[in-house]
Design goal:
two-stranded antiparallel sheet; single chain; mainly alpha
Length: about 375
């Protein structure tokens, strides 16, 4: 047998080479964005002026926030070799816990702290509580998938079903009667000086906290995955865990940490719904965005920047839907609401065949 083909270092190096060409992904993304805008102007007859366009782009970034978080969760998990289709369930659980903590913490604190201070503190407490709830589900997924080596697709499906059942039960038992008393969502934070830049300022620097956190998270994960020893080990474990183990990398530890960290990011996606979008919780309010996040991850070829681009495309699809509803109320609302899901089908049909997942993705490791 050729020694070169069995060398662990060579096996890892072959697995970590760049897959796909980034300019192709970026070009496809830009083409889709242009097509969406042409479709929008065709439907509304060019009624969207400059301020309308800026507002639509700002809305695109807001709507892309939970999708990008979901995609980043998938990147963290699958780069280490663990498939996670339970992102939707983690998001739903985080949304419910975030709403509940926000509501009850506000009611407990408002008399002693005042309405404004209590609202600010309760929202941050709610964010951390929602993230923690998602991390608990992620830890469950990690233990069952990594330690007990179950089928990861089935495990993720079970987590989704568990989250739907549990949140629905808790909603009916404890939350439904409190819905009119929501304490409010995070306010928009205008970044000094930057928010006054024409066009760019209202789009990028007049957003709510989780949108800023999402943009920072994309940059951090990109750097960690491709410019740190931890990222190298993560990608090695996702490509060739046997070779990584041979050179001293703890495969189980890498996968545990990445899956739980992915749960943290999915939790941020979930609390977006009840802390930034609206201050109420409704069963199934995540509405499949966790799965759309997985499509964005695949479109971006398991790369954080690419995943963000995919999320922005889906966010633009939602923005186009809203704009059509405003300018063309004669069009049945169900038709434009189909657009984000049609985009999912189009992107998966056109991209999956050319996007290669990490080689060990979804394969339990036997030491």
């Amino acid at each position: 047998m050729n020694q070169q083909t069995t060398s662990p270092a060579r096996a890892i190096g072959q697995g970590l080479r760049l897959k796909g060409r980034w300019w192709v992904t970026a070009l496809v993304g830009l083409m889709l964005i242009v097509v969406l805008w042409l479709l929008l102007n065709l439907i509304i007859g060019g009624q969207c002026d400059g301020p309308c366009v800026v507002g639509a782009l700002a809305q695109t970034l807001r709507v892309a926030t939970p999708i990008a978080f979901a995609a980043l969760c998938g990147v963290m998990c699958e780069r280490s070799g663990v498939v996670d289709i339970g992102i939707e369930g983690k998001m739903l659980m985080a949304a419910m816990v975030g709403y509940a903590v926000n509501l009850f913490a506000y009611q407990a604190l408002k008399d002693s702290m005042g309405v404004v201070a209590a609202g600010n503190l309760s929202r941050w407490l709610a964010m951390f509580a929602g993230v923690l709830a998602a991390m608990v589900l992620a830890a469950l997924h990690a233990v069952v998938s990594i330690e007990f080596k179950t089928n990861q697709i089935i495990t993720g499906t079970v987590i989704n079903i568990l989250a739907v059942g549990l949140t629905g039960f808790l909603y009916r038992q404890f939350l439904a009667e409190h819905l009119p008393a929501g304490p409010g969502t995070f306010p928009i934070i205008n970044i000094p000086i930057l928010s006054n830049i024409p066009i760019i300022g209202p789009i990028l620097f007049q957003q709510k906290p989780l949108t800023y956190i999402m943009l920072i998270t994309v940059v951090v994960i990109q750097y960690v995955l491709f410019h740190t020893p931890w990222g190298l080990r993560t990608r090695a474990v996702g490509e060739h865990p046997r070779a990584a183990d041979t050179v001293g990398v703890n495969v189980y530890k890498i996968r545990y940490i990445n899956v739980i960290a992915g749960g943290l990011i999915a939790g941020l996606a979930g609390v977006w719904f009840t802390l930034e979008a609206v201050d109420v919780f409704n069963p199934m309010m995540t509405n499949g965005l966790g799965f759309i996040g997985l499509a964005a991850m695949i479109f971006g070829k398991w790369n954080p920047f690419g995943a963000l681009l995919g999320a922005l495309i889906f966010g633009l699809g939602n923005g186009v839907t809203s704009t059509i509803s405003i300018f063309r109320p004669d069009i049945p609302s169900q038709l434009p609401q189909m657009l984000p899901y049609l985009l999912t089908v189009v992107i998966l049909t056109g991209v999956v065949g050319r996007a290669t997942a990490p080689a060990a993705d979804g394969t339990p490791y036997e030491k």
